[in-house]
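ERR on first pass: missing label on line 2. Operator R.T. fixed the label and resubmitted. Corrected input:
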Amino acid sequence: MERKNRWIERIAAELRRPVPVDPDAKRRLMAEVRRVHESRRTGLWGWLVRPRPVAVTPLAVLGGAVVLAAVIFGLAVRPGAGPVTPAAEGARPVQFVFVAEAASRVALVGDFNDWDKTVTPLRRRGPGDVWSVVVRLAPGPYRYAFVVDGQRWVADASAPRASSDDFGLPSSLILVEESRT
Amino acid sequence: MARSWGYPHVGESDGALARRAAAGDIAAFEALVDRHYPGCLRYALRMLGERADAEEVVQETFVRAYRALPRYQERDRFTGWLYRILTNRCRSRGARAQRRLRRLIDYRAGLDDPVERPRTPRPDLSNRVTRALLRLPADQREAFLLKYVEELSYDEMADITGAGVSALKMRVKRARDRLQELLKDLHGEEESLD
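pass 2 clean. output:
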């Protein structure tokens, strides 16, 4: 056992050796990050978040608050489409539905959210086992799966199974078509 | 551990830097890149076997991480959060790496001709280990690297990969067994690394 451990440690030590870093590669990376940073700062989002003075009457503020409350109430009681995640350009709403018996939480993971189970939770529709969420996706193919209670990965039984998964995790395929309207 | 490259954020935690970067401090994000780029590049290179692919994957990883910073929560370990993105990027490149591996295997098969063998220089240990690693199935290679090179716990690996702890332990075991077998075969002799 000790000889085997020394063998593994020797292999690991070789693999842990630092690899040379190309300064140009790092510069290209930061140039791309700065480009994203600038586009956020100067694009639509930057315009929306930049503070500017606005003159409104108290009656307009009250009216706006009433309208906002009505919209929020209306969305809350609408039968469970679930939360909508932020849109990509040209994106279409796609509803994902999952039936999970005795689950306390269900998340959607896929190519569109870096398979991050913290990003896109599903919402339970009513008292039963049906969960759903609406995600805005640009046209194209996507692989996805559901994660039940943070641990169990499950493919979508109603969708085609993705092939060639080298990591033994079930996933499904969806093709979002372009809008014809 | 990466060099600091002289930036003023040397003493700050990853979480603090991520918070500042999410608020628009690009220098804070660059400090995170300085810390984690070498480790990410090493991992990507070991997984994919090709430097150009590895550099592209690492660039994609950090750009995606920058875009996703508003979703990063400080209770998550930053390295684990970053490596979740990195492992997914490497998986997406996996098919290309497999095609390259088939070319490598074909090349090795050519070298097995006994007439050529005396002219073939013995690869050093680093090359032998790298080639053997690339012959592992992708899931075993990933598990081995996360366990023995990145030195993560099985719980951390499970969080990054989405696989269960039992499955990860089995992949690591199979990777160890296969590497031992491959490193014996490369030179057709009893392998003793003592």
